[in-house]
Amino acid sequence: MPRCLVAALTTVSAFACTESSAPLEATPSAETPTATHETSTVDESVNRPVSGDTEQANRLFELAITREKMGRRAEARQFYEQSLEADPAHLPTLISFGYFLLQNVEHLNQGRALRLFRQARLLDENDVRSLCGEAISRQTLADNEKAAPLLKACLARPDLPTPSPPRSLAELSYANLLFEAGNVDEADQHYQRALAGASARHSARYCVDYGTFCIAQGRNEQAEQLMREAIRRNPTHVSAHYHLYRLLHVRGAEEEATKERRIHEILRQMSDHTSRFYNDDVDRNLRLRRELVEAYPEYERARFDLVRECLDRRRYPDALTELAAMVGEGGTAEAFYLLARTYAGLGQIEEANKAATTMRKLNPKVPEAVLDDILEEWTKNHSVNDKALQRTLADWKKTTAP
After folding, report:
1. Which helix (DSSP H) or strand (DSSP E) does residue 306 occupy?
2. CA–CA separation, 162 vs 168, rounded Å?
3. What is the mean pLDDT of residues 250-276?
4. How far lies 221's CA from each of 20, 21, 136, 158, in Å?
5. CATH for 302-399, among 1.25.40, 1.20.120, 1.10.260, 3.40.1000?
6. Residue 164: what pLDDT?
7. Which residues of 288-305 are buried (b: 16+ CB within 10 A; e: fewer)?
């Protein structure tokens, strides 16, 4: 079969959407590296890290893990970086940060991940998590000669839990390696094992990689099911929408194919947020989010994401406009939380207080940190010594109690 590697841990962000009546062909999930220069550079330059302030690193590591679980990945990365600054030899951070860089598309950096795992193995050569991490990193960087024996070794380790994220990622990497080598039957078995053990948070990419493999085998019906499952698990997975569009187009379901093509195109453009130029283009970003709300009504989070983008950019009047349809009858605690942040940003602390009170009534278990977020929105634009804010700080907990 033609050389076709499905990258294990990355996502398409720049497919051209061209009409075609030709038979559907498998398309890799991302650009595949063609050389191992990066792995050679890491191998030649990595050294055993020197210990530092372990206690401080522990505190920052816990903050990173908490933020990652909350989905606040940019903050998580900052805490991981700070933890390694405090103690470059902090083994839990080296390993967890490595997997973070492999699994989160917007922070993808396989070369950095490989360096972290190599450093971890220099500290503890027998740690199975760092062994798996190194093997996966090498496979995604096309260093298959070294990746293959490492993947076999870690999958054979009895101390690698089943299921576990490292084992599932290793299964996926090994499946991709076998697929590239043309070992279809064995690759199929490893794709199934990887998907069965995938964590809910990252399982969409497993569906996409296995679905792409199925396309290459002409199993389009199964591939379509896998792409739909990927979208169910991650509604904004760019390559899942692309492949679903192509599959629908090939079988003649043009109405749904057109819709999926439009969703993919919007999401593809939104993925350009990784570019500093586009990230600074606030009007473009807000326009794309509004277009996604219109094109993808099934995705209820789209409007919430639009409001959060408005708040991040301090476009409070725009946020208020969008929230008008979200805080009427049936409004959720999250909607009123965003409304409270919006009013706080506008300097209308009493209105923010009312919205926060409603939020607490709808969800009495809202953590105190959420109230801090609302007050922080105020302090972005107003003096912390403002009398209105001081009055609110004085009685906030009492007035927002359920």
Report:
1. helix 301-312
2. 8
3. 88
4. 19, 17, 29, 36
5. 1.25.40
6. 85
7. bbbbbbebbeebeebbbe
